[in-house]
Amino acid sequence: MHKNKPEFIHDIQIGIGDVCKITGVSGRQLRYWEERGYIHSLDDPKSSVRKYSLDILYKVGSIKHFIDEGYTLAKAVEKSEQRSKEMMVVRHFMVDCLKEVKVTDLKKGYGELELGTYAGQKVVGIRDENGSRFEMRPLEEK
DNA sequence: GTTCTTACA
DNA sequence: TGTAAGGA
């Protein structure tokens, strides 16, 4: 994908062929989506060969996800952008609140999230074989 | 060998 | 949207 390792993630440039292989979206679609203004390739005045940023790679994958769900291209793009905005809030929330994460099963993605305190109790997010849920626990005394 | 544009069944 | 053509 890269001959020289980029110093920053923003320096990463991915060819259209790789974007196709990774996302499952055809080159024809990628060019069409760009023509419609849904995505953009890095503009290089010296070359007509398209290169994409990591951001766009994710966006393409996201749009593809919603298309596979049955949405039209236009709707899938809306969904993707809406999702992106929502996740921004989720990330900030988690960064602010998340105190500690205990991994109980790496492969299955199980674990416990320490999400702070509420009403004098610890708020814990649980993810295990029974699904995801919250639990309130008494503050540990030392 | 890959990507580009244009055109069409 | 896929695919073929013809050039870069």
From TrEMBL:
Pfam families: MerR_1 (PF13411)
InterPro entries for this protein: DNA-bd_dom_put_sf, MerR-type_HTH_dom
Record field: transmembrane: none
Every HTH merR-type domain range: 14-83
Protein name per Swiss-Prot or TrEMBL: MerR family transcriptional regulator
Record organism: Ligilactobacillus faecis
Lineage: Bacteria, Bacillati, Bacillota, Bacilli, Lactobacillales
